[in-house]
Amino acid sequence: MKQRIIVAAIGIPLLLVVLCVLPPFATALLFAAVCCIGVHELFHVMGLGERKAAMALCMAAAVLIQGVVLLLPFSLILFLFLPFILILFLLWVAYYEQDKPFGVEGLAGAVFSGLLVPLGLAAMTALRNGENGRLLVLAPLFVTFTGDSGAYFVGRAMGKHKMSPRTSPNKTVEGLIGGLVVATLGLVVYGLILRAFGIRADLWKLAVTGLLCGCCAQLGDLAFSLIKRQYGAKDYGRLLPGHGGAYDRFDSTSFTAPAVLLLFLLLEVF
């Protein structure tokens, strides 16, 4: 616990400086680094640590995605850039792995870590790069951190019914509900903070966004936990003492960030 507190006390202010003080390029660089570390972590968890070329390709794709987000709208990336990169990726794997079978699981892990997770975290760069980005980029973190805290404390205090014993044995139905409620309230509080900075925010729409994105955060946590359980790993890495690896800290964010971005646009929250 002491390690967790020390890392959080140092890491959270640094994260806020990168996201809110430094230019958007710093946000893109941060999440490019997170994705590259995550690729390394996932490949080793899956027992594919010796596949250096495939790992390098996934890292390059992750960095490229973050860079492109600085230049193109996120919608164009989803509909144009992703299919293009995915086709190139599959062609490369088909060629390179002729004599070294990669396997369906390996290919799925490569697509997940090299394309899908980077695209999810690229939404953070897209939020930071937009209007009022210094404030809006914090929304996915509000949802994730408040939801996690709510689920933890409500689960500890009231949890009786296991939600998914095989995937995440410590999670309970009561914790899930508590996490969704707190995530919803957390984003409403976030909206009140934005109003204090002169940004007109619809609190009801923020509440809907908080509820839906709270669900996405829970799904993200379960998805990454499922992979760990599949390969018998407790954590993805040891990057942050007491917290685990990059994927252990930003698993839910890779799901909530694109959900926040799309709901902000669709619901016209601001």
Walk me through the topology.
Blueprint: H1 2-21, H2 24-45, H3 52-69, H4 74-96, H5 104-129, H6 133-136, H7 139-158, E1 162-164, E2 168-172, H8 173-196, H9 203-230, H10 246-250, H11 253-267
Antiparallel strand pairs: 1-2
Helix pairs in contact: 2-3, 2-5, 3-4, 3-5, 4-5, 5-11, 7-8, 7-9, 7-11, 8-9, 9-11
Any overview of this molecule?
This protein has one domain (2-267). The termini are far apart. The protein has eleven helices and two strands, in the order H-H-H-H-H-H-H-E-E-H-H-H-H. Helix 2 (24-45) runs antiparallel to helix 3 and helix 7 (139-158) packs across helix 11. The chain has 270 residues and is an all-alpha fold. The chain has a two-stranded antiparallel ribbon. It has helices at 2-21, 24-45, 52-69, 74-96, 104-129, 133-136, 139-158, 173-196, 203-230, 246-250, 253-267; strands spanning 162-164, 168-172. It is globular, with a radius of gyration of 19 Å.
Number of H- or I-type helical stretches: 11
Summarize the main sheet: 2 strands, antiparallel
Number of strands: 2
**What is the number of independent domains?**
1
Alpha carbon gap, first and last residue: 39 Å
